[in-house]
Design goal:
Blueprint: E1 17-20, E2 24-30, H1 32-38, H2 40-47, H3 53-68, E3 72-78, E4 83-87, E5 94-98, E6 101-105, E7 109-110
Parallel strand pairs: 4-7
Antiparallel strand pairs: 1-2, 2-3, 3-4, 5-6
């Protein structure tokens, strides 16, 4: 989804990534301007204060889509190691590993 002429993005605290040692962390992908305008990663971490990581990710992507349009994906991780993957794009590639089991996925929760 990179715009023509675009070389790449640098992660921006609050938008592309955010972490709070008492709550969890989130990292975003997709159209950077949408993540910046909605501060999507910080929004997700704030939502994790009252919701599980997966629910916070889904709700953050849904809110961002309503505010500025679709084009973001988000991976969330709470302080206990629970995670979620949400997106409103055609797909989001991600992988996880716990113990000796590795799982690779081509899609998270599509909003």
């Amino acid at each position: 989804m990179k715009l023509p002429g675009r070389i790449g993005d640098s992660p921006m605290i609050g938008a592309g990534l955010y972490a709070d040692s008492q709550v969890g962390a989130a990292t975003a992908t997709g159209i950077g301007e949408l993540a910046i305008r909605t501060v999507i990663s910080r929004t997700a971490v704030e939502m994790m204060k009252d919701s599980p990581a997966e629910e916070a990710g889904v709700n953050s992507v849904r809110l961002a889509g309503q505010m500025v349009g679709k084009g973001t994906g988000l991976i969330t991780l709470d302080r206990r190691g629970n995670f979620g993957a949400a997106h409103d794009t055609s797909h989001l590639c991600w992988a996880s590993m716990s113990g000796s089991k590795t799982e690779a996925h081509m899609t998270g929760t599509k909003v």
